[in-house]
Amino acid sequence: MTADATRTPFADARVERNRAMLRVRDAIDVRHAEPLDLAALAALVHVTPEHLIRTFRTVFGETPYRYLQRRRVERAMTLLDTTDLPVTEVCLAVGFTSLGSFSRTFARVVGVPPTEHRARPRRPPAAVPGCVVRSWSRPSEHARGA
């Protein structure tokens, strides 16, 4: 029996669903500094915005909006660590339109406000592959039980 003969229609549908959600996640990653357009993302994978939200949450454990916020905060962390840009400019560069909402979101995800994050001493880079460092240093509300 071949591998194709053991696949079920349910498994095929799940694989297609996951691929579609990966396309949405990739689109969010590419356009993280732009406003989230759920209708356009849903059209990308031929579903309604409501179905997109439910399916994205099922596949990735968070809504597209939460994912976008987390990606923006990750990018802001990098800019705060590697540049001398003022916090307001970092806020605007990563796609937030309000300094207040940026600071609140940053503090909720990272655990400290942007200015405090920047003031923390930086550790020298570890001899670990970048993908591993990014995976382990990615902010996650689930890790703190929030």
Reconstruct the topology from this structure:
Layout: H1 3-6, H2 9-30, H3 38-44, H4 49-60, H5 64-82, H6 87-93, H7 99-110, H8 114-119, H9 130-137, H10 141-144
Helix pairs in contact: 2-4, 2-5, 3-4, 5-7
Care to describe what's here?
This protein is an all-alpha fold and 146 residues long. The protein has two domains: 3-61; 69-141, Arc Repressor Mutant, subunit A (Orthogonal Bundle), CATH 1.10.10.60. 69% of the residues lie in helices and 0% in strands. The protein has helices at 3-6, 9-30, 38-44, 49-60, 64-82, 87-93, 99-110, 114-119, 130-137, 141-144. Helix 2 (9-30) crosses helix 5. The protein is globular, with a radius of gyration of 18 Å.
What's the SSE pattern?
Answer: HHHHHHHHHH
* Number of domains as seen in the coordinates: 2
Question: Structural class from helices and strands?
Answer: mainly alpha
- The level of helicity is 55-70%
Q: What is the CATH superfamily label of the largest domain?
A: Homeodomain-like
Please give the radius of gyration in angstroms: 18 Å
Short structural summary:
This protein is mainly alpha-helical. 69% of the residues lie in helices and 0% in strands.
Keywords:
146 residues; Arc Repressor Mutant, subunit A; 0% strand; globular
